Amino acid sequence: MSYLFVRSLLAGASCHRSLANRDRDKYRHPAETLKFFGLRPNMTVVELWTGSGWYTEILAPFLASKGQLIVTNSATSSKPTLAFQQKLAVNPEVFGKVKRIGNASLLLERAIA
């Protein structure tokens, strides 16, 4: 993973990230977390229960050119989920093609049934 890319993404020039999500960085240490997992730009990453998209705002730009991000949420019609999906749709130059696969809870139930 390009640790420098993630650090620059988090440096504040990242206007595609919400202020609330940027404020959480100091507690979540995203660059260090992604470095620990060995993320590379050509990987396919599945993000379960995306919530407001805190990690998606970091992962999608990193994976946009060579990798793929697949996301799923539990409440596919909730207001935060719909706002998140709209954000992805109107910023393809930043987020690339993020694949959405529906309700994570239902997928998990089917997988273990």
UniProtKB/TrEMBL annotation:
InterPro entries assigned to the protein according to its UniProt record, in alphabetical order: SAM-dependent_MTases_sf
GO molecular function (one): methyltransferase activity
Protein name (record): Methyltransferase-like protein
Gene3D superfamilies: Vaccinia Virus protein VP39
Keywords: Methyltransferase, Transferase
One GO BP annotation of this record: methylation
